[in-house]
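quick one
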Amino acid sequence: MSFKNSYLASVMEAVVARNPHEPEFHQAVSEVLESLEPILERKPAYQESGVIEMLVEPERIIKFRVPWVDDSGKVRVNRGYRVQFNSAIGPYKGGLRFHPSVYEGIIKFLGFEQVFKNSLTGLPIGGAKGGSDFDPKGKSNAEIMRFCQSFMTELAKHIGANTDVPAGDIGVGSREVGYMFGQYKRLSNEYTGALTGKGLNYGGSLVRTEATGYGLCYFVEEMLKDNSTSMEGKTVVVSGSGNVAIYATEKAIELGAKVVTASDSNGYVYDPDGIDLALLKKIKLQERKRIKEYAKERPNAVYAEGCSGVWGVPCEIALPCATQNEIDAESAKKLIENGCIAVGEGANMPSTKEAVKLFLESDIMFAPAKAANAGGVSISALEMSQNSQRYNWSFEKVDHMLQKIMVDIYKKSSEAAKEYGYEGNLVVGANIAGFIKVADTMMAYGVV
Ligand code: NDP
Ligand code: 2IT
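structure w/ NDP:
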């Protein structure tokens, strides 16, 4: 780790010592702390108040047993988590991830990132994340439902519309949110918006499904515009084929780009004719099949095993929308060599530290996750507003608000970068801009 500031170095050392064996959490914290060096020089109160030491420690970690019965009658036991990281500027807010790789370190990294992302949105939401090591792959609908109900039976004790409002993430989409909301409503005997990403019949917001992918493209378009270009006519590589990837693909196509790839954890498809969005949606959203199937139905598309090969496909814009650390230094070098001009992170922390360094040292325009993928949680916050009003806004209204929020986040991040001497570095800009609102609020509260 490379800290010039000895205080920040000592905070980082303490984080590593206190949270051993959690490399993703260390990675997320070190990136933010490194960005804070220029602001600490100007405002020593951030050090004197202890606010940074408080920020790196979650307010509360909830860890629980999730027992359920599979279709053969066998009892299965998973582990559930909710890390309520910071509630300085609003109720805890952030998604739930169901994936076998989930452990405390993953949820902590995601919760920590969420604090700054949510601050950047300008909306009154604190940061949290949760999930389970449950693997939804190959499970029947009934098994998914029993798991979600058991998970919520415990989680319900800790959430609420004014306390903590979970939503989806990897492995948690509208089906899972439906099962969890149904169980929450039953347990609490209340009809309140304690989850977002709900179905449209029961308090969901229009545009929430599309929001992360659309928001990513709005952000990237603004970044390109600031550099006198646009998505129009560009070749785009997208990784993943889930919620974020599908709607990033949809908006990129709408903006005139040609998306040529989609992937999952087994491999990727390259379609030189441009991804057929209707086919992608049919395979992934309706049939819930693997991405391999796509190539079988398109004349010129090819499927390759292994998901990292997708970064070797020549493109001008890369949109990683699958998972953390999916772009390592080798993949970053390939993108740079092949003439990529912009990277927009749809997934959370999809680039390793080494990859980010390579992007920042190159001419590539780099849109970091905290800023670029904040569209999803922004519309979640607007879902909360609509639930409080007991009213639903139109698609056009919400989409317009999403566009404005993403442009504002771009402006805030690029202006903060410039103000602190890092013009063009949106990593530093987004981290500083996100930090200021939370840190100033915490200082107003004192030591709490
Ligand atoms: P989905 O579950 O809908 O899709 C995840 C996609 O990523 C799938 O194609 C999945 O493939 C792939 N994937 C998952 N794990 C891996 C892995 N280890 N290696 C390669 N591919 C993998 O999730 P989302 O689209 O919602 O989330 C994608 C990313 O976006 C995550 O990083 C999430 O945190 C982030 N994000 C999501 C938001 C949202 O609103 N949903 C908001 C902001 C960020 P497979 O089927 O093989 O597992
Ligand atoms: O990473 C994220 O921002 C999300 N998974 C969305 C969280 C939310 O509360 O909508």
